[in-house]
Structures are given as structure tokens and as C-alpha cells.
Amino acid sequence: MGILYLVPTPIGNLEDITLRALRILKEARLIAAEDTRTTRVLLQHYAISTPLTSYHEHNKLVKLDAIFEALDEGDVALVSDAGTPGISDPGYELIGEAIRRGITVTPLPGASAVITALVASGLPTDAFTFLGFAPRKDKARQALFREYAHARGTLILYESPNRLVDTLEAVIAALGGDRPLVVARELSKLYEEFQRGSASDVLAHFRATAPRGEIVLLIAPAPPVEAVVWTEAEIRAALREQFENGASVRDASSTVAQASGWDRRAVYALALENRNTE
Ligand code: SAM
């Protein structure tokens, strides 16, 4: 039984492929490619003559059997047109089925637009949510942004140049014009560009200069909600209210400590004082 290798290919610059990826592409029995014409250009560049078969969105289910037959005989390398297979590209079903059949799935590290954009965006990298392509309908787009308005970490989407302005408008409608964001364009290519700024500024830029090429949109997380710090006077007032409602010292201090975030013992001490001075 062969191994199913997941082989990332360049997202623009043909040099962005690892030595191991080239070796696996050379040694595999078969390369399953999203678009055989696109992959042939890469293979020709590196003088690789491994047989190719297509595996794309529209034939991925009927192609499964042929790929598993090839895996009976040797290794298969799965590639997409650019970047990492399975990331907004076909691969998911094949990988899932290979795992179910007990086939070894070996991923190779390599290029992916989402990570390439994130690391240079200047936005938080400790936590992020990748949302793939934004929905095409405006209502659905806005609903998506609202759903993730308070998500922890940076939001990342793939976008096409002719929908970018509409998507930025949806970001502003859902999250406000001040939300910092970054548009990463044409990564690793001649006209690589990062537009950083508030959603309104970046929208104004792309209204003036129509976007072109391939795009990753990264949206900063919402600023943390300021914790409301209760003053001592507010704690005493809350305790008084509790007592007026008949609460015991213990219950009143427990309720107020929970609501205020104050230390329970500190609130208890104030509760005793309040009780004694009544
Ligand atoms: N599998 C790929 C990956 O790992 O990044 C993504 C494939 S998805 C069909 C293609 C989308 O990825 C493009 O529409 C664009 O949003 C983004 N993308 C791919 N290459 C890019 C590049 N060089 N610069 C910016 N975005 C890119």
C-alpha cells in the first residue's frame, strides 16, 4: 500500500517549493492534480515526468477509485493549482477516505496564502480564524462578519479582486469603519502589496485603485472590552441594596463579589462594616 502525500506547490514564485516536495513529485507513482495543465507547467520547470491525473471539484468523487487503485501500487502525490491542497482547494474527501481505509497520509509543509499573509500582516498571530472565501450574497457576508465580530484573534478570508470592495463594505456595515485590517495582494509575486489601515481607509484606497490579482483579507480582532472596575462606594451601595432586600451578610457579599469581580473576603469585610454601622 502506497502513501498519500499532500504536496504544497508555490503560490506565485516558482522557487517556493521544498526539496522534499520536488523529490516526492519525482518519485510518486502518480500525481493527482487539481488542474493538470497548471501542474504540468511546474513539472516542466523542474523536469519532472511523473504521470498526472486530474482531481478537481467536479470529479473528486468519481476519481476516488482510480486514485485508490494507484495507491495499491505505490505512492500518490496530491497537489492543487497553488499552495496547500485541502485549503480552499479539493482534497478533503480524498484525505478523509484515505484515513478511513487505513492509508498513510503524509503532509509536506509548504506554501499557503493564509499563513504567508498572516505572518506579515502585523495583526495578532497567536490566535486566528480562517474562513475561506466569503459568501457572495451581501446579507450572508454581513451575517458572517457579525457572527465573528468578537472572535478571539485575527479573521482571515480569501477574496477575489472583483468582490473586494463589496466585502470591505460588508465589514464596515457589520464591524464598523475603524476596525483595522490588511489586504495582502499578489503574495510572492512581482506586485506583492500589503494595504494596512482602518476598514474605511482601505476601502477608500481600493475604491480609488481597483484591486487586481489574488487577495487575502485579514481583519483585526475587536479591541478587548474594558473591564468595569467597581469602586468601594459602588460595592457599599450594592450591599445596602442586598440588605434592604433581606439578604444575609454571607449571601449579600457572595452576590456582590460575583457581580463586581472583587475578592469575596474583601466584600464580606465591607458587608460586616455596613451591617454594623446601620
Ligand atoms: N490552496 C491555496 C492555499 O493554500 O493558499 C488556496 C487556494 S484558493 C482556490 C485561491 C485563493 O487563495 C485566491 O483566490 C486568493 O484569495 C488566495 N491566494 C492564493 N495565492 C495567493 C497569492 N499569491 N497572494 C494572495 N492571495 C493568494
Structure characterization notes:
The chain has helices at residues 19-27, 36-45, 64-73, 92-100, 113-121, 138-147, 164-175, 199-208, 232-244, 249-260, 264-277; strands at residues 4-6, 30-33, 52-54, 76-79, 105-107, 128-133, 154-159, 180-185, 193-198, 215-219. With 278 residues, the chain is of the alpha/beta class. The chain has 3 domains: 4-107, 3-Layer(aba) Sandwich (Cobalt-precorrin-4 Transmethylase, domain 1), CATH 3.40.1010; 113-219, 2-Layer Sandwich (Methyltransferase, Cobalt-precorrin-4 Transmethylase, Domain 2), CATH 3.30.950.10; 232-277. The strands form 2 sheets. It has a 5-stranded parallel sheet, with helices on both faces. Helix 2 (36-45) links the parallel strand 2 (30-33) and strand 3. Helix 7 runs antiparallel to helix 8 (199-208). It is elongated and about 90 Å long. It starts with a strand and ends with a helix. Bound molecules: S-adenosylmethionine. Residues 11-12, 80, 82-84, 87-89, 112-114, 158-160, 184, 186-189, 214-216 line the site of S-adenosylmethionine.
Itemize the secondary structure elements and their pairings.
Blueprint: E1 4-6, H1 19-27, E2 30-33, H2 36-45, E3 52-54, H3 64-73, E4 76-79, H4 92-100, E5 105-107, H5 113-121, E6 128-133, H6 138-147, E7 154-159, H7 164-175, E8 180-185, E9 193-198, H8 199-208, E10 215-219, H9 232-244, H10 249-260, H11 264-277
Parallel strand pairs: 1-4, 1-5, 2-3, 2-4, 6-7
Antiparallel strand pairs: 7-10, 8-9, 8-10
